[in-house]
Specification:
The protein has 713 residues and is of the alpha+beta class. The chain has 21 helices and 18 strands. It holds the Pfam family Cpn60_TCP1.
């Protein structure tokens, strides 16, 4: 090898050192039992509680080039997956230290780049055996949660053909009174609140799938679901023996008892044995986040019921929005149909006037201000405007614009305006005076949802408005908590906007601690996108450190094989001819790569209190590696330990308070992309540092052998 690649002083690789120091701040954010951090804003002295690598990086001083690259890499991972950023951040630090150790041992930069890149590719191929399809996950979860004699009624034996019969009945058996019969009307377009009836989700029943309750004809399997339509306990006041859909009469019956219900209450229990389908999968992907899990189970149950009419089984994130309410206990968090948002006290008075009235709705795809112009608008050159409104008599041009906008809205009898961007404050005041409700900062997904069900068409400027652009059928009301009370949060009031048939769901997130609000919202969206990506991939990884342990075992095996020149398997494992002259460095580089996985497992165990120290965690990992090697098949050993629930278990864990043996799963694409992005960043910084030290011409040979392009640039 050229001498230019030998003896590079590791102390001069400033970029790698910066990556290592920045990543060190995120060690406690790794794993399901992460330790949150307080970020203090020096300008306002306000603190925010975070548990995400994205929020951490946004708060750090990233003046260095390496810090900027790290920020771009984490933002790219967050934009695409919304999960895996903490793993990415930790591996960047671990592998930066590993590369620095290789440089201290005078390992050529080219060998580090090639061996590490090929080693990670080999790991990604090896861990494919630990992937499990979503169908197999559901079968395993449901079969493991069967309770004997759960269904004793013959009414449970209902075939698929019976579901098409409109005369199917929903039996509601009470302890004292005679059974009550409620007819069922499949896929009935009733009021959305009826799908979230509190009576059907008692504290003894969890958020089960209504769809999976009735078995198809010929299906002899036994399964138990809960939630809407299941026997939850012998002491339950109301027992639903079987159900498929909620009928008009059934909904009216329960509505008369419970009133206008806003959504599933987050305080209700979610027993692992009672969930099936998307709800149970959401539990295994929640990684111990109870509040987000229960909200997501509610959303999954609702969307799964609607999906039976549309034939789709995916989690539609475009139909999910959040509303953060500060000042209420966290037990008030729930899922509410429609769009829940915050308005001022003045707007609340307008809502009280418009309540229970059908509204004409207008959608604005932009700002509702006088100076707003759409993206790409270019003013004509060499034109000077002397007077934009020649006919203006007295007053200012702004007053004329306000009057014209108000005239347009009143001429089309618009009661409700949803604006994607900002709204002029003076216009807002005039609209309030004329009982017109204007909501600003509405996302595009919300505009599209209301456009589909109200036939409203978004416009960019009010001058484009015509009768066909105005929709109808929207309703607005003050948002009520699960106890039926409207909430007044001081300066802001939560309101709910709905329309018949709208699929939009709002996760209402509540807390009494201001610094915790951002944390709760981040955790919720992480849970949502974990389930979303799992359904898109149609497969998941075994969780609990199983994948990383197999990577560690595999890399160590390759390192041992590389020390045996006569063993051709070690050479065939890699396909880069450049490594033929760097065989002596393979073992060192592979061991350095493996050290990243070992540190990852050790820190996760320490954060989850499965080990008292990192030394004890490393000892536990080494013990598993020895047993896996003695077994002859590391993947078989890991799979067996995972099913037994003994993998990296140290007496306590993220699910210590829940049912023993609950499986944990991880996303496939998000996890592997986090690995690749982390290593790509480290190798890019290594290459840049080496180019600065040795010069671009001498480093040209290295550039030609970098195996992968850096996808985050």
């Amino acid at each position: 090898l050229p001498m230019a690649f030998r003896g590079v002083n590791a102390r001069r690789h400033i970029g790698l050192q910066h990556l290592s120091s920045l990543a060190l701040a995120g060690r406690t954010l790794l794993g399901p039992m992460k330790s949150c951090k307080f970020i203090v804003d020096e300008s306002t002295n306000q603190s925010t509680l975070i548990s995400s690598a994205v929020r951490l990086i946004e708060s750090l001083d990233l003046t260095s080039a390496a810090g900027q690259l790290l920020n771009e890499t984490i933002q790219a991972q967050n934009k695409e997956f919304k999960t895996g950023m903490s793993t990415l951040l930790f591996l960047v630090g671990a592998w930066s230290n590993a590369v620095l150790e290789c440089l201290q041992q005078n390992v050529p930069v080219s060998a580090i780049v090639s061996v590490m890149a090929e080693g990670l590719n080999s790991c990604c191929e090896r861990v494919q055996c630990l992937q499990i399809s979503i169908q197999d996950v559901n079968k395993e979860l449901c079969s493991s949660s069967v309770r004997p004699n759960a269904f004793k009624s013959k009414a449970c034996q209902v075939g698929r053909d019976s579901l098409l019969n409109p005369q199917i009945f929903l039996y509601v058996q009470k302890e004292i009174s005679a059974p009550e019969v409620i007819p069922v009307n499949p896929c009935s377009d009733q009021e959305d609140d009826c799908n979230f009836n509190k009576c059907l989700v008692s504290p003894l029943a969890s958020f089960g799938s209504v769809a999976s309750l009735v078995k198809p004809a010929g299906d002899k399997s036994t399964s138990v679901t809960s939630g809407s339509g299941v026997i939850a306990s012998s002491c339950n006041k109301q027992k639903l023996t079987h159900s498929r859909y909620f009928s008009t009469l059934g909904r009216s019956h329960f509505s008369s008892q419970q009133g206008n219900f806003q959504g599933y209450h987050s305080g209700q229990s979610a027993d692992p044995c009672d969930c099936c389908g998307l709800e149970h999968l959401a539990m295994t992907l929640s990684h111990g986040n109870q509040t987000s899990m229960k909200l997501l189970q509610s959303i999954a149950a609702y969307q799964q019921e609607r999906a039976e009419c549309s034939g789709s089984s995916q989690l539609n994130t475009a139909e999910i929005v959040t509303c953060c309410l500060l000042g209420l206990p966290e037990s008030y968090s729930c899922v509410s149909p429609g769009f829940v948002t915050l308005v001022s006290q003045e707007q609340a008075s307008v809502i009280k006037y418009l309540e229970d009235k059908p509204l004409r709705i207008l959608l604005m795809d932009g700002d509702l201000t006088e100076q707003y112009r759409h993206l790409g608008f270019n003013r004509p050159c060499n034109v000077r405007t002397i007077l934009e409104h020649p006919g203006l008599q007295g007053g200012s041009a702004g007053d004329w614009w306000l009057s014209s906008v108000l005239d347009i809205l009143m001429s089309f009898e618009v009661n409700l305006v949803l604006v994607k961007g900002n709204v002029c404050e003076n216009l807002m005041e005039r609209c309030i005076a004329n009982t017109i409700l204007v909501i600003a900062s509405v996302t595009r997904d919300v505009l599209c949802a209301f456009g589909e069900v109200t036939s409203a068409q978004p416009v960019t400027y009010l001058t484009q408005l015509n009768a066909s652009c105005v929709g109808s059928g929207a309703e607005v009301e003050l948002w009520k908590a699960c106890d039926g009370r409207a909430m007044d949060l001081g300066e802001h009031v939560p309101v709910r906007i709905k329309a018949r048939g709208i699929p939009l769901l709002t996760a209402v997130l509540t807390t009494a601690v201001a610094s915790k609000m951002q944390l709760i919202e981040d955790q919720f969206w992480t849970s949502v996108y974990r389930l979303h990506h799992a359904l898109n991939d149609k497969k998941v990884f075994l969780g609990g450190g199983a994948v990383e342990l197999l990577c560690l075992s595999h890399i160590q095996m390759l390192a041992e094989q590389s020390l045996q020149p006569a063993n051709k398997n070690a050479v065939e494992e890699f396909h880069n001819p450049w490594l033929a002259s760097a065989t002596e460095y393979k073992s060192v580089v592979l061991q350095a790569l493996a050290s990243g996985w070992k540190q990852y497992l050790s820190v996760v165990m320490c954060n989850a209190a499965k080990a008292a120290s990192e030394l004890e965690a490393c000892t536990s990992v080494d013990d598993h590696l020895k047993k896996a090697a003695a077994c002859g098949s590391p993947s078989a050993y890991i799979l067996r330990e995972f099913r037994r629930g003994d993998l990296l278990r140290g007496g306590s864990g993220p699910f210590a308070d829940h049912r023993e043996g609950l499986k944990v799963y991880d996303n496939v694409t998000a996890k592997t992309e986090a690995w690749r992005r982390a290593l790509d960043l480290v190798l890019l910084v290594l290459q840049t540092d080496a180019e600065i030290i040795t010069g671009p011409k001498r480093n040209q040979l290295l550039n030609s052998h970098v195996s992968n392009e850096f996808r985050f640039l």
